[in-house]
Amino acid sequence: MNEPFVEVNDLTIGYRNRQGQIVNVLRGVSLVMPRGGALGLVGESGSGKSTLGMALLGHLRAGSQVQAGTVRFEGVDPFALNPAELQALRGGRIALIPQNAAESLTPTMRVGDQIVEVLQFNRILVGAEARDLALELLGQVRLPQPEAMFTRYPHELSGGQQQRVAVAKALAGEPELLVLDEPTTGLDVTTQAHLLDLLAEIVAQMGTAMLYISHDLGVIARVSDRVAVMYAGEIVEVAAVTDIFARPTHPYTRGLLASIPRLTQAGIPKAMPGQPPTPGEHGTGCSFTPRCTFADGTCETVAPTLDAAAQPGQLVRCHHWQTVAKIEFSQELQQAFHKAVRKVEPEPAVELAGVEIAYTRQGLIQRLRGLPEPPATVSDITLTVHKGETLALVGESGSGKTTIVRTIAGLMLPRMGSLKFKDYDLNVGVDRRPLELRQQIQLIFQNPDASLNPRHTVAEILDQPLRLYFNLSRSERRERSIELLERVRLGPHYRLRYPGQLSGGEKQRVAIARAFAAEPQLVLCDEVTSALDVSVQAAVLDLLAELQAEHGVTYIFIAHDLALVHAFADRVAVLYQGRLCEVGSTDEIYTPPHHPYTETLLAAAPRPVPGLRPHLLGSDVPELAPPPRGCPFQRRCPRRIGSICDEEAPPWRVPVEGHRIRCHIPLDELETAQVSAAEHVIPLEPLSNSVSSN
Amino acid sequence: MLKLTVRRLFYSLITLLIIAVVVFVAVELLPGDTATAYLGREATPQRLASLRAELGLDRPAIERFARWFAGALRGDFGMSLARDKPVVDLIGVRLRNSLILGLSAALIGIPLALGLGIIAGLTRDRAPDLWISTAALIAMTLPEFVTATFLILVFSISLQLFPAVTVVPANAPILDLLPNLVLPIVTLTLIMVAHILRMVRTSVIDVMTSDYVQMAILSGVPYRRVVLRHALPNALLPAISITALTIGWLLGGLVIIEVVFNFPGLGTLLLDAIHTRDIPLVQGIALATAGVYVVVNLGADVLTLMLNPRLRTLRTA
């Protein structure tokens, strides 16, 4: 019985495309996991990481087939099992925690019943015994009031609570292996940090092995002891987590690590050129060749094998790993960041004063009954954005970031306060704004799949703003659209393509080109990179920075990723429940004193540094409405000082001109407490002392 | 939940009121009135005038509507102009016949449609699905009078199993009506099953590929239970409203089928009433039909509310 716990051997999974050719999504993947191990599986979309995870459960996407190789779980091949045996394996010995808990819980079944069901089929527990254990599990994943949770339906829970239920469901069968497929993607940073903490604790307690699939290197660093990096259906590097992050030897791993923005480092990270191949479109040689700076003739024709590298247990699939390994990675990383060149001018571009926005209007009856008006969704926003500046709006979901941007764009009207853009009054809906104002303010949305009409070609998409705002002839518009495409680094042949034929990064480039076609002066960016792969994200940031330098546009930039904000913004406004907590330059925001909420967010952000445990402040219980009085953050604040926080609105404190913190705690006290907290809990990051070079 | 139901009920009553007005106006707009239709060629201005005075047709339209409406609130739908009988009496037995026909078709058709739809959905693109879907497509595309005529040709004329047209009077006991019912029911059922089945099939396919069904399978839940507990409750929700809509269509389809089979139901009566410009009768029938429609939709809404926890636990602020 000397079987390895999990052994994947030369596994190739593929499907037949319409032309009848076999397209391999996984190509010759080999992998060993010890009992109780935690393997992180990193890769960009389309790298085959989910396919591999599902293969351990004996599950293939419809139409896919195992073309070659084997999967063994304690000597058992899940693809050779009959349905009854497969049922016993799934949920009982291997459990899955899916990406989207909201959609993976059955909407018509109570949460408790769904857990009881797993107990019933995997542990043959029924009745009161099963119910008690289900309640215990709900408590174990730290859901408040398990009794009440038991009878709820999935839609009655918040995103974080749904994900906890999914964890409880997975743990119910007491599995030996957990497959986690991006379980925290889409959650707020604080919720994510709490969930990861919970998982780490439970796994340590129960000795469960984990296969953690994610594109987020910060999360991978936090949960794994070994990491496998996947590219185009192959494993390109496997190593201990510390080696992957400190001494990566594959050019792709290096590029990936260099392309992620870091909390401790201002400036835009280095973009990786090109994009990953679509399945089946890799050449005969190394699939990374077109994007690799080390590539030579051999790489194009001879596929490298996964060989032992310098560190013990490190495997790498590269012809030139020895050359790569000679370059000190920390040096390379320091040079990876560059600051965007900006000309911020003293004149204000956008001015918001005392802005209040509400989604609901009180009905006549409620007003007559003298009911107090519910607190507005967004309130008391006073902000100035200078010409040529990038202001980031930061906060968790429900913090009112998008609401403010929609109001500036004229898609909503404020209830109170004044909004100005240069000399224009923005207090009017977009339908009543003059044409030149509409031309000067443009929006770029989060998801280009939804914001580009799938039935229009790229040429038609770019034609719309050109026709609307400029009096150009047909051939002039054609010329201009080619220029615009070149500006976002797409060739003229893209004009005739449909959005469906483009990759995610290309689509977002088209969306950017459309916004800039109007020659705007203010561009509102709503999470523009969050739908993109990390390696593409940096390139899009570069593009936005370049366009800004060229045209002197002002950006208002919404993001939830604090590291990304550090990379790109000049100034940051931190919002909680539609109220400003802190406003300041990027450097001021990222060094103490912080508002306690900013501190909470910074502490929870996952970082691509193994061994760092984020310290959790306060709870992650989401709030549905702002409190009627006092500080908006009173209920979750880790530094609450007493009833004054509940009763009185905190004063603005100004450490330096331009930096404001809204808190009852005096600044020096905040700073002392925060500096010591940071020293106690976070080990000093090796990179934190390096200064970004221009 | 209760509040929602009461609100739906209130809307239903308003719907009925609007229908009454619309039907009245529509018949009023038709050229001619009961007097011209009744007297036909013997119409002289004098006879028309006296008949109109007798029937109350000389009063302004608003007044006639108000009077009728006041009566309707008390359950008195007035006298049929052409037949000299209370509208309620005329409708009563015909409504019974039509309801028997419609309900039988629904009772046979709905379970059949659900069953076949589920089978087709679960065996997507394999043999059972292909057979069921093709048959449904054919049943759907043929107009009901074609299907009806075809059935008459085969079962009444060639095989002589059932009568081709109904000859028993409208108020005959149900047992006597029974042999006359078979072919109309089959015709109705065929088309209804086809519509509902296709909807159920699509919905089952959707749900079976959903994340939560995949997740249930990957949690080691047996297939039967995945289908019964996770998939079907969600798949059948959209089927409820489509079923209600189909029943509404069935009421319209009834007119054609009743005419083809000469079945003494509400449909044939309606046609007669329109021919004779018998406004109170038309109104009575329209309201009865609308009433059935509204009740069925209300039932579907309540059923959906009961089965869908998302709606049930919705906070109605």
Please, could you describe this protein's structure?
- The complex is a heterodimer of chains A (694) and B (317).
- The C terminus of chain A is likely disordered.
- With 694 residues, chain A is an alpha/beta fold.
- The longest helix of chain A has 18 residues.
- Chain A is 35% helix and 19% strand.
- Chain A has four domains: 219 residues, P-loop containing nucleotide triphosphate hydrolases (Rossmann fold), CATH 3.40.50; 106 residues, no CATH class; 225 residues, Rossmann fold; 90 residues, no CATH class.
- Chain B has two domains: 124 residues, no CATH class; 173 residues, Orthogonal Bundle (MetI-like fold).
- In chain B, helix 5 runs parallel beside helix 8, helix 10 crosses helix 11 and helix 10 packs antiparallel against helix 12.
- The two termini of chain B are 12 Å apart.
- In chain B, 36% of the residues are buried.
- The model of chain B has no long low-confidence stretch (mean pLDDT 83).
- At the A-B interface, helix 2 and helix 4 of A face helix 9 and helix 10 of B.
Topology:
The complex is a heterodimer of chains A (694) and B (317).
Chain A: E1 6-16, E2 22-33, E3 38-42, H1 49-56, E4 64-73, H2 83-89, E5 94-97, H3 101-104, H4 111-123, H5 127-140, H6 146-150, H7 159-172, E6 177-181, H8 189-206, E7 209-214, H9 217-223, E8 226-231, E9 234-240, H10 241-246, H11 251-258, H12 297-301, E10 307-308, E11 315-316, H13 321-326, H14 329-334, E12 348-357, H15 364-368, E13 378-386, E14 390-394, H16 401-408, E15 416-421, E16 424-425, H17 435-440, E17 441-444, H18 448-451, H19 458-469, H20 474-487, H21 504-517, E18 522-526, H22 534-551, E19 554-559, H23 562-568, E20 571-576, E21 579-585, H24 586-590, H25 596-604, H26 643-647, E22 652-653, E23 660-662, H27 667-681
Parallel strand pairs in A: 3-7, 3-8, 5-6, 6-7, 14-19, 14-20, 17-18, 18-19
Antiparallel strand pairs in A: 1-2, 1-4, 8-9, 9-11, 10-11, 12-13, 12-15, 15-16, 20-21, 21-23, 22-23
Chain B: H1 2-29, H2 34-39, H3 45-55, H4 61-73, H5 87-122, H6 127-141, H7 144-158, H8 174-208, H9 211-218, H10 223-261, H11 266-275, H12 279-307, H13 309-312
Helix pairs in contact in B: 1-12, 5-6, 5-8, 5-10, 5-12, 6-8, 7-8, 7-10, 8-10, 9-10, 10-11, 10-12, 11-12
